[in-house]
Recover the amino acids of this structure.
């Protein structure tokens, strides 16, 4: 009796694991196809081209919101790119679109996924009409920023 209950438990666990695996594979395939469709849009191609042009700067922050994307440099600290989705062919404002854009940027700029250099922060944007939108920011870690600034300033060191 106890052996049959144990066998039933193991069988049920196996069935549950197989079901979860099938659901994961289906979701992964769906997300991959959404990413591929978004990658082929004119808005993303233009954003990627602009990011490639400013890639020589050290990015302090890369923010992706429903309204657009903003990139700030480390030194000098200023905005090097402000890209509006609405003015570049996409007026859709939803959270899933923003998340997909952030994932594509992370895939195409792999240095943003380095754990020692950047951290991904999800946050909320509160609009004047009361709507809450999700947004994502890749922010450079303080230790890595200090390292970069130290390396840049070594050339400016003066000996007295």
């Amino acid at each position: 009796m106890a052996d049959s209950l144990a066998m039933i438990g193991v069988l049920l666990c196996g069935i549950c694991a197989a079901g979860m695996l099938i659901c994961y594979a289906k979701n992964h395939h769906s997300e991959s196809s959404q990413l591929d469709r978004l990658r082929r849009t004119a808005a993303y191609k233009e954003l990627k081209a602009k990011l490639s042009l400013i890639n020589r700067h050290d990015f302090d922050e890369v923010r992706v919101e429903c309204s657009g994307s903003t990139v700030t440099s480390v030194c000098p600290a200023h905005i090097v790119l402000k890209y509006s989705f609405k003015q570049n062919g996409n007026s859709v404002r939803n959270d899933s679109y923003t998340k997909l854009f952030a994932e594509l940027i992370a895939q195409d700029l792999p240095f943003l996924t380095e754990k020692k250099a950047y951290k991904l922060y999800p946050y909320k944007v509160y609009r004047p009409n009361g709507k809450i939108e999700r947004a994502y920011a890749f922010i450079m870690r303080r230790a890595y920023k200090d390292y970069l600034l130290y390396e840049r300033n070594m050339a400016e060191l003066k000996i007295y």
In short: The mean pLDDT is 85. The chain has two domains: 1-40, 42-152. The longest helix spans residues 2-39. The two ends are 88 Å apart (CA to CA).
